[in-house]
């Protein structure tokens, strides 16, 4: 286990497209083992930031450190990250068990180890009875859980979750939330985006709100209330007050971008 205090450090991170700056001078420090919620409305720059964190998009400026290593200078640092995009990327012609074996192989995990790890994760996800069923026959909630299992097969120390509760029914949403809590209890740092602010209030240790590519605020919910001088405010009220989206109709104003 790396002895860094912070699992994730974004240092003056920037992304520019021509004259448009999608992410402006973003600095975040995410403590190891915490659940960190990264919020913002459409076009705020959240998905752009996550793509820079996962090595999909090169920053215009600044640094992305995972466990103290710059992912653009040391590509091995990326292996410490598990990533679940908003649309699960699964080979639906494989069974659940085969899918996890396949991903384990991509990470160079020995087959016997991958098999043991797959059985463990399928049990953790409540999917053991469906282990030999094709993924194409799974519900959306089951596919979300499969995507999380695939992201965890190599035991990453950082888990990035982009809108994993989108489109889930209440039972599936509850199961995914419990999984997130369990992963964090095991010491993995969870960095998530969601437009369902009730989930953030329930799960997150720290909250950051991004608006038009710039960090507006960061802290615990109580710290956010103190900064905006709204001691009894909900997260939704704080979000709307900071982003000027009062006319957007509740927590849906915080959709991913």
UniProtKB/TrEMBL annotation:
Pfam families in alphabetical order: ABC_tran (PF00005)
Ranges of residues in domain ABC transporter: 8-237
Keyword Flavoprotein: no
Record-level Gene Ontology MF annotations: ATP binding; ATP hydrolysis activity
This protein's UniProt keywords: ATP-binding, Nucleotide-binding, Transport
UniProt name for this protein: ABC transporter ATP-binding protein
Annotated organism of origin: Brevibacillus aydinogluensis
Source species taxonomy: Bacteria, Bacillati, Bacillota, Bacilli, Bacillales
């Amino acid at each position: 286990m790396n002895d860094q205090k912070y699992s994730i450090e974004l240092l003056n991170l920037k992304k520019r497209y021509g004259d448009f700056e999608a992410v402006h001078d973003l600095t975040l420090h995410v403590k190891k083992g915490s659940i960190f919620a990264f919020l913002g409305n459409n076009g705020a720059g959240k998905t752009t930031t996550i793509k820079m964190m996962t090595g999909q998009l090169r920053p215009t400026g600044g640094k992305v450190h995972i466990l103290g290593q710059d992912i653009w200078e040391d590509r091995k640092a990326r292996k410490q990250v598990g990533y679940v995009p908003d649309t699960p990327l699964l080979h639906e012609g494989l069974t659940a068990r085969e899918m996890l074996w396949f991903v384990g192989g991509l990470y160079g995990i020995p087959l016997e180890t991958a098999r043991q790890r797959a059985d463990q994760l399928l049990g953790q996800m409540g999917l053991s009875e469906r282990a030999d069923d094709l993924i194409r026959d799974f519900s959306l909630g089951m596919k979300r859980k499969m995507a999380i299992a695939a992201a965890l097969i190599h035991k990453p120390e950082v888990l990035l979750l982009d809108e994993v509760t989108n489109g889930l029914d209440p039972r599936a949403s509850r199961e995914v939330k419990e999984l997130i809590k369990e992963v964090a209890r095991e010491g993995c740092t969870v960095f998530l985006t969601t437009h369902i602010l009730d989930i953030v209030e329930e799960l997150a240790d720290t909250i950051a709100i991004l608006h038009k590519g710039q960090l507006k605020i960061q802290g615990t919910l109580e710290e956010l209330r103190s900064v905006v001088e709204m001691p009894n405010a909900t997260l939704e009220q704080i979000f709307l007050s900071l982003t000027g989206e009062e006319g957007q109709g509740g927590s849906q104003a915080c959709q991913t971008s």
